[in-house]
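Renewal narrative, Specific Aim 1. Our central claim is that a sequence can be written position by position from structural information alone. The example that follows is taken directly from our test logs and has not been curated for this report. It begins with the structure tokens describing the chain, in the order in which they were read.
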């Protein structure tokens, strides 16, 4: 999973909605950006060119917000009288979004101020695009750029303001301030191959998790799988992969929707490898399904627009995301006044919209185990035990990773053997490391494998969701500190037990270890065997499409039924609950309990899931 920092463009919280008039009584702050006087060590300070195009999102207040969570649970909880009564985007707007009268009034105002305006049909997000001079004039700002500890930052010298009547329905303005922090939290190790391999065929997922007959019968017919992406789409690479793997290779299955936002100083994925991987896997498992790729710039504006577009179209019955951001980074950006706490609530509303419309959204849990990053004010990065956003969100199904049984020999003659399927974690290689540490230290790929594993943990951003409450193992944990502060293996890690409270993730797991991974192709790197939880998210999105193709109603958000089923004799799960040889570099299993933060509820028997999922 290529988890990258999002460009932490400020999602700016609004204050008490004053106007632009000169009197103090009628003027108030509508945003709190990362202002010049809050920054230290700025160099190369420049005013943003007056003609530079700036793209902002206006996030509007949610109407009847108290009903949002209730509705999302109700339509996805078996036995509730509203079960499966999904809303259309139009119905969602009528209940929760701002009225067309309000958005037309706002559009008229910003068009008069020389902005191009796009209103998303949920009535909650409006994109405005105009020159920097238009932004400065309209919001009473003075946009500037500078180098900040080696990173380019855009900010406003002045605090943005809007007239009271304009500001009143607006919850947040996104994109006035942004801090570019391009870094990958994990680069999944891959092994070059000459072409497709028998061990890496995507169909092996179907046989491993009891889905072959299900897939052959339905194949995703009549469904659309959505892929959220922050990189390019190369249809030729994808169809080449499908053809080589014996899958229908029609490029007409793939459509691309650009969802807006602006690229901030080159903040885009340099290639199309992640998108190719996601589409290849989803399309191979569900060969009759259409694939809709929602591309966006890697920015806060792009992030919001991608989801708003996907849910606004409502074409995709399942949606996959293979990107994310550490909660530690979110906390740091808020602490240093770059990001407000509204970030989590804005995304929560968007993702709840998907659940209310019956979209099954899957998010990869990450490839760095329980670890995430935080930022220091001087620009340094350090690691800690942090959840990954948005896999930590209650309205997505978080997909983690396992390692399949295998036996192999390293170049130094040391044997690596995994006797049974377990949570993916670098500790699986610790015995081999102990036998020849020097060999590992000479090979960066092997050292990277020692520090990789399935994302999982307990969120501090989101509370424990209703469907996890009372489930054994939730909010309690077993752990082993498998890595030292220097990131080296700790070979004698003792068992730690503890309690916490929050959204526990992942929910489900499947094979994600590069050592037991899947075929991948892109024209830049050729054929390889890859792993990472970014493989698993599109695989589950494909399975949702396969099951949906034989139903009159979408599966919707999986989680309420998954956690209920896991506690019954009809459970479709195989638990991975051992507290030894079963870790994600920190969390391990909780023997006898239904849930653990390393492997979630476990692996899925999809034949059984399709039978018992209502």
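The sequence written for that structure reads:
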């Amino acid at each position: 999973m290529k988890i990258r920092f999002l460009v932490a463009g400020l999602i700016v919280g609004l204050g008490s909605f004053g106007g632009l008039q000169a009197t103090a009584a009628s003027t108030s702050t509508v945003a709190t950006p990362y202002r010049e006087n809050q920054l230290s060590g700025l160099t190369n300070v420049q005013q943003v060119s007056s003609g530079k195009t700036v793209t902002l999102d206006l996030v509007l207040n949610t109407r009847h917000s108290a009903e949002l969570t209730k509705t999302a649970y109700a339509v996805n909880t078996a036995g509730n009288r509203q079960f499966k009564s999904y809303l259309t985007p139009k119905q969602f707007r009528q209940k929760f979004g701002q009225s067309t009268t309000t958005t037309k009034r706002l559009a008229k105002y910003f068009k008069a101020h020389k902005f191009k305006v796009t209103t998303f049909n949920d009535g909650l997000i409006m994109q405005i695009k105009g020159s920097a001079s238009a932004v400065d004039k309209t919001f009473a700002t003075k946009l500037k750029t500078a180098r900040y500890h080696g990173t380019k930052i855009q900010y406003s010298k002045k605090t943005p303001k809007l007239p009271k009547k304009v500001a009143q329905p607006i919850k947040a303005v996104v994109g006035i301030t942004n801090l570019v922090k391009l870094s990958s939290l994990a680069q999944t190790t891959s092994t070059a191959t000459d072409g497709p391999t028998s061990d890496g065929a995507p169909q092996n997922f179907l046989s491993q998790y009891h889905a072959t007959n299900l897939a052959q019968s339905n194949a995703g017919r009549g469904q659309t799988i959505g892929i959220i992406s922050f990189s390019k789409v190369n249809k030729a690479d994808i169809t080449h992969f499908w053809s080589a793997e014996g899958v229908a290779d029609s490029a007409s299955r793939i459509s691309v929707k650009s969802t807006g936002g602006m690229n901030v100083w080159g903040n885009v994925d340099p290639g199309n490898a992640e998108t190719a991987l996601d589409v290849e896997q989803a399309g191979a498992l569900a060969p009759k399904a259409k694939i809709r790729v929602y591309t966006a710039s890697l920015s806060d504006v792009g992030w919001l627009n991608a989801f708003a577009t996907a849910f606004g179209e409502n074409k995709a019955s399942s949606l996959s995301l293979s990107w994310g951001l550490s909660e530690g980074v979110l906390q740091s950006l808020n602490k240093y006044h770059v990001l407000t706490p509204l970030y989590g609530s804005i995304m929560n509303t968007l993702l709840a919209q998907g659940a209310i419309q019956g979209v099954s959204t899957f998010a990869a849990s990450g490839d760095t185990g329980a670890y995430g990053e935080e930022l220091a004010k001087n620009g340094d990065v350090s690691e800690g035990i942090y959840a990954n956003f948005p896999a930590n969100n209650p309205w997505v199904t978080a997909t983690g990773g396992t390692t399949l049984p295998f036996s192999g020999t390293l170049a130094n003659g040391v044997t690596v053997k995994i006797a049974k399927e377990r949570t993916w974690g670098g500790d699986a290689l610790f015995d081999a490391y102990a036998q020849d540490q020097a060999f590992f230290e000479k090979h960066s790929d092997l050292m990277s494998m020692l520090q990789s594993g399935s994302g999982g943990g307990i969120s501090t951003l989101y509370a424990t969701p209703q469907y996890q409450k009372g489930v054994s193992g939730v909010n309690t944990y077993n752990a082993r500190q498998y890595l030292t502060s220097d990131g080296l293996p700790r070979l004698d890690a003792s068992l730690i037990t503890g309690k916490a409270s929050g959204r526990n993730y992942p929910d489900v797991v499947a094979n994600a270890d590069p050592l037991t991974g899947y075929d991948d192709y892109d024209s830049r790197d050729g054929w390889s065997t890859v792993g990472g939880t970014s493989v698993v998210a599109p695989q589950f999105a494909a399975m949702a499409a396969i099951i949906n193709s034989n139903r009159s109603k979408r599966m919707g958000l999986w989680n309420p039924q998954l956690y209920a089923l896991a506690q019954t004799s009809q459970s479709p799960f195989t638990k991975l609950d051992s507290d030894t040889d079963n870790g994600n570099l920190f969390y391990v299993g909780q023997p006898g309990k239904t849930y653990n933060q390393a492997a979630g509820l476990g692996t899925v028997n999809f034949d059984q899931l399709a039978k018992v999922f209502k």
